[in-house]
Amino acid sequence: MRDTRRSRLLLVVLVAAAFLLITLDYRSDGGILSGLRSGVSSVAGRVERGVSTITSPISNALSSIEDAGRDRRRAEQLSQQLADANQQLAQLRDARRQAAALSRLRLVADKGGYTIVPARIMATDDQLGLEWTVTVDAGSDTGVRPGMLVINSDGLVGSTVRVGATTSVVRLACDPTSHIGARLEGSQALGKVDGERPGELLFTLYDAGQRVEPGDRLVTFGSADYAAGVPIGTVTRLRDGGSGLARLAEVRPFVSFGSVDLVSIVVAKPATNPGDRLLTPRPVAPPKPPPAPAPPAQPAQPAQPAQPAQAAPAAGAVPSR
Question: What does pTM read for this prediction?
Answer without folding.
Answer: 0.62
